[in-house]
Amino acid sequence: xxxxxxxxxTKNKAKHAKLMDRKKNKLRQEKENRKSKLKELTAKMKMxxxx
Length: 51
Known about the structure:
By secondary structure, the chain is mainly alpha-helical. 80% of the residues lie in helices and 0% in strands. The protein has one helix and no strands. The chain has one helix spanning 10-50. The N and C termini lie far apart (80 Å).
């Protein structure tokens, strides 16, 4: 027999998914920032080396 009333855990699952997405996006953004900083550094070092 099916339960009546609100479904169990849907709010918690939605909240958890939202938090995990936020965490993944943060990590992805940090990785991209690191990559761009390294690109800038390598370009700066190449310019310095050429001079």
